[in-house]
Inverse folding.
């Protein structure tokens, strides 16, 4: 899978409460959740994000609650991939399980500015800053995790194991 | 002989059917309990249906607790709660807790003996790490993991490295489990235990009751931890005896088990602590925060809504009045705690002080209902998170503290220690 889009860059410890505030957790409808993505961090985000855009952040992205509404709202808002220096573990699992591509790439995060055009090859882990020409390699997913991703998420993998 | 292992590694090995496991290894484990609530279960149920199985793997091992937006906050919340209720009835789930039996999940399941020592538990709620206080491996996951757990009774894990926190010495006046864990989070940061298990040990931990231990493990996630754990001892045994609905197994770390890092902490140096906005790691001694005036105080939650918390709050509030500019909301975390508060006369203490006392709910902790903050308002809460907008408007602020500091703050109107209050 290849993605190209504009980078939206944020800081460290972006928690799931600012990704999707709890006042909207009385629904799990992706379209509704998308309307409020990152609302308490950057009220302008939903207005400026375009389909395929890339979220870039520093350490511990997605810390806090286990709400799967967080990766769901990011994906439904149009974000194609999240690149961060590190991810909180429940968010990491949830993204893998729900099919939101994520990449741990500290060097790339340091080399991408807000508004840069970035392309990502999720199969090879190559990240290119099209604005500056810099290229980085993200850490490869562990094979077991790649198996889940390649199956199309945890539900598809489970279905394949249980039904066959 | 298997390699020396920590408690966490031993529990995971036993549930993976292996003699030994090591950090970094990916394993599939059998589960003892799978938990979800009214916010996370609806997605889990939708995902469960997609798998194509008709029944949950074991109707006695799935716990569904509608505690976040209940009693129903609005129509959408009512629909979510109904979806959970209908699923519980369809599947014959034995651990479904209707309003009137319901409590805040992480106070309720240990109290009812649903979770016990040696268990592997996943819950679609990040504070599922609470049950580590019973000597279990317990961790928060998302709804999809919970759905697969409900269908198969299994989950995949990367075996975490373990961190050891050795807390020795005597705690000062009004210092409790909440101060210990806030102190630790302040020391290591909100990602200081990322992907790791936090094992708490030492003479101070041994001297703590179960409620304080549950508070400590509850907040392991606020340091990024995968789990928190305290080895079984006589305090644990006394707590689970008469409650546990299944046989339990005790595991202990080998003396030569390997830890990624060992922290030695002097308990006598820990003060009543407050976490300032907007991270639980932003800690300061409460005595340095007396210039922070507040609009609301919340005492409750899966972190500090248990009986010992209620007793400490009542001890501070007895014979005193809540400050005229403060709203005090007390939320006993379960029906049993609520009833015990009445029997011990604590409810009268709270009401006499001018507090609102609520039926169990997560409510204000996550900005759900029952105490939302307006723009610019400040709250002291015995809850676990103080992120931007956590309890309401994005410009509101939450300061985290123990029940003792929260109760004293409600009386003083600003952050205070019980000893600061006039008699």
């Amino acid at each position: 899978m290849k993605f190209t889009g504009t980078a939206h860059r944020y800081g460290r410890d972006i928690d799931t409460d600012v990704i999707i505030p709890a006042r909207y957790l009385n629904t799990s409808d992706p379209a509704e959740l998308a309307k409020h993505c990152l609302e308490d961090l950057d009220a302008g985000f939903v207005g400026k994000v375009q389909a395929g855009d890339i979220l870039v952040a520093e350490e511990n992205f997605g810390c806090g609650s286990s709400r799967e509404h967080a990766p769901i709202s990011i994906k439904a808002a149009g974000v194609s991939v999240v690149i961060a220096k590190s991810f909180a573990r429940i968010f990491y699992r949830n993204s893998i399980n729900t099919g939101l591509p994520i990449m741990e790439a500290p060097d790339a995060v340091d080399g991408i500015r807000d508004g840069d055009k970035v392309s990502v090859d999720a199969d090879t882990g190559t990240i290119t800053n099209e604005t500056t020409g810099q290229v980085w390699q993200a850490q490869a997913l562990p094979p077991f995790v790649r198996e889940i991703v390649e199956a199309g998420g945890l539900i598809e993998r489970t279905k394949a194991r249980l039904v066959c | 002989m298997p390699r020396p292992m920590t408690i966490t590694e031993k529990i995971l090995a036993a549930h993976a059917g292996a003699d030994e496991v090591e950090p970094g290894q990916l394993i599939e484990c059998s589960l003892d309990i799978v938990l979800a609530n009214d916010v996370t279960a609806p997605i889990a149920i939708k995902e469960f249906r997609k798998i194509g199985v008709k029944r949950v793997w074991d109707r006695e091992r799935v716990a569904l607790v509608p505690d976040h937006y209940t009693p129903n906050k609005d129509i959408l919340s009512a629909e979510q709660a109904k979806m959970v209720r209908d699923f519980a009835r369809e599947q014959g789930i034995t651990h479904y807790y209707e309003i009137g039996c319901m409590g805040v999940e992480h106070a309720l399941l240990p109290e009812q003996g649903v979770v016990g020592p040696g268990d592997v538990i996943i819950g679609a709620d990040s504070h599922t790490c609470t049950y580590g206080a019973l000597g279990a491996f317990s961790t928060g996951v998302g709804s999809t993991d919970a759905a697969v757990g409900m269908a198969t009774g299994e989950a995949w894990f990367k075996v975490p490295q373990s961190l050891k926190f050795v807390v020795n010495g005597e705690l000062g006046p009004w210092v409790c489990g909440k101060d210990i864990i806030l102190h630790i989070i302040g020391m290591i940061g909100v990602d200081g235990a990322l992907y790791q298990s936090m094992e708490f040990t030492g003479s101070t931990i041994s001297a703590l009751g179960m409620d304080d231990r549950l508070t400590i493990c509850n907040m392991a996630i606020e340091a990024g931890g995968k789990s928190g754990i305290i080895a079984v001892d006589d305090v644990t045994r006394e707590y689970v005896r008469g409650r546990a609905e299944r046989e339990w197994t005790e595991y202990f770390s080998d003396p030569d088990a390997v830890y990624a890092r060992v922290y030695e902490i002097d308990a006598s140096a820990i003060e009543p602590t407050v976490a300032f906005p907007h991270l639980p790691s932003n800690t300061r001694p409460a005595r340095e925060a007396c210039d922070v005036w507040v609009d609301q105080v919340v005492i409750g939650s899966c972190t500090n809504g248990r009986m010992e918390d209620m007793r400490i709050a009542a001890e501070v509030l007895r014979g005193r009045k809540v400050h005229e500019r403060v709203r005090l909301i007390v939320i006993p975390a379960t029906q049993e705690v609520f009833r015990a508060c009445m029997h011990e006369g604590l409810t009268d203490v709270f009401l006499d002080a001018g507090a609102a006392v609520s039926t169990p709910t997560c409510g204000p902790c996550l900005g759900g209902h029952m105490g939302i903050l307006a723009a610019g308002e400040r709250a002291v809460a015995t809850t676990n998170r103080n992120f931007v907008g956590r309890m309401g408007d994005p410009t509101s602020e939450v300061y985290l503290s123990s029940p003792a500091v929260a109760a004293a703050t409600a009386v003083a109107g600003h952050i205070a220690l019980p000893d600061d209050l006039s008699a």
DSSP finds eight helices and seven strands in chain A.
